Amino acid sequence: MRRAGSAVLSVVVATLLALLCAPHAVAQGPWFDHAVGSANQVIAVRGSGAGTTVEAWQRSPLGWHRISPAIPAEVGAAGFAAEAADGVPATPEGVFTLDAAFGTQPSPGGGLPYRVVGPDDWWDGDRQSPTYNTHQVCPPGSCGFDESQSEQLAIPAYRYAVVMGVNAERRPGGGGAFFLHVANGQPTEGCVAVDEAPLVWLIRWLRPGAVIAITG
């Protein structure tokens, strides 16, 4: 028993030393510290225009640790906004859940529910629809919502994507279809976009309870 206890103690000590020596440990807490509640994983989006970056942060018993480099990101063509709104290509500021992922490609793994999407997958953008701002499945031309106001999900930017919980109450006109998705070198319609390789890494890292924190 003493030998087993010593082995466990050695592992604990080694883990604590590794965390203490982590190059990205932040003793005072990052900018989002008081806004994310009990979340232990945060994707932090900060900047303006071409200077916008995404970082992955993990909370340990010793505090927050940045576990990724600053990843270049694209945001809305109109920059950031205090609130989301339909028809406004701005990325909303705030803290939002990251509850699920999807893509045209097979799941890369990770802790979030993942759905493979195809030509019958939509994000309902019809303000008059009872399923506004939700994922729906129906063949084109047969949907019970206005398809011209909605978004088909089988597009290159959604090879991989994570759903951001913007306008979770689904208030008509309050914005919908906000994702963290694959970048194409252009500003978005309000989403956050990064290159495919780091996005796949993020999806594999994410677990239930993670959030995205955004500030301009």
Layout of secondary structure:
Layout: H1 2-20, E1 25-26, E2 41-46, E3 53-60, E4 63-66, E5 71-72, E6 80-81, E7 91-92, E8 94-103, E9 114-116, E10 121-123, E11 135-137, E12 151-152, E13 161-164, E14 179-182, E15 192-194, H2 196-205, E16 211-215
Describe this structure in words.
Pfam families: YkuD. This protein is α+β, with helices and mostly antiparallel strands. It is built from 2 helices and 16 strands. Strands 1, 2, 3, 4, 5, 8, 9, 13, 14, 15 and 16 form an 11-stranded mixed sheet that branches. The chain has a 3-stranded antiparallel sheet with strand order 11-10-12, with no helix packed on it. The chain has a two-stranded parallel ribbon with strand order 6-7. The longest helix is centred in the N-terminal third of the chain and has 19 residues, at 2-20. The radius of gyration is 19 Å and the shape is globular. The protein starts with a helix and ends with a strand.
